[in-house]
Design brief:
The chain has 197 residues and is an alpha/beta fold. The protein contains ten helices and six strands. The strands form two sheets. Strands 2-1-5-6 form a four-stranded parallel sheet, with helices on both faces. The longest helix has 22 residues.
């Protein structure tokens, strides 16, 4: 492992990276993001929280057609994040699926990059509103607080500020003291700079 030993890495604060599903619509962007994350994970402990992307869009379409209950749509959308987690773990060097805190801890201890499949944890905790106002952004914010992370980086299809690009529930879920930064695909070369601050 370059950039530091596992013991040294464990002493660094945890960073949560929310990898937006919209990146899958931009040719090459997912693999570019995966390479940037794998490189950064050699120097700092990271956990990846997926968005929902086309999997969540399928739930939205079904919801619009059938009028699902808010709770059913909520849990189906989080299951969509589990599917994207499988895609990310498949593309990310050193990536592995983690279902809950213990799996995250074990993956980090093994020098892996945990990719959270959040359904199991979110279903057990059930602390977020069942609404389309809460998406992967808010779940990443919740996870940041639950794991005492100091930084949440949201990789989005377009760059901008959190006020314009996150879901409506985000600001209420993000704990005080957790810094949130949005990066677009053209800014991935800034990831390590952002992590170093």
């Amino acid at each position: 492992m370059t950039g530091g030993t596992m013991a040294n890495l464990r002493e660094l604060p945890l960073t949560v990276i929310k990898l937006g599903g919209g990146l899958m619509r931009i040719p090459g962007a997912l693999d570019l993001a995966a390479r940037a994350i794998a490189s950064a994970a050699r120097r700092r402990p990271l956990i990846v929280v997926p968005g929902g992307g086309p999997f969540a869009d399928a739930v939205r379409t079904l919801d619009a057609a059938l009028g699902l209950s808010p709770s059913t749509a909520h849990w189906m959308a989080i299951l969509a994040m589990d599917q994207y987690a499988c895609v990310i773990a498949d593309r990310l060097d050193g990536g592995c699926i983690a279902w809950e805190r213990e799996g995250i801890r074990e993956a980090l201890a093994a020098g892996k990059v945990p990719v959270l499949a959040p359904f199991r944890w979110m279903r057990a905790a059930d602390v977020l509103p069942h609404s389309w106002d809460v998406t992967g952004d808010s779940i990443a914010a919740f996870v940041s607080g639950a794991l005492d992370a100091d930084l949440l980086v949201l990789l989005k299809p377009i760059p901008g500020g959190t006020a314009d690009l996150v879901d409506r529930g985000f600001s209420e879920v993000l704990p005080a003291g957790v810094r949130a930064v949005v990066l677009g695909p053209a800014e991935l070369d800034r990831l390590e700079e952002v992590l170093a601050r």
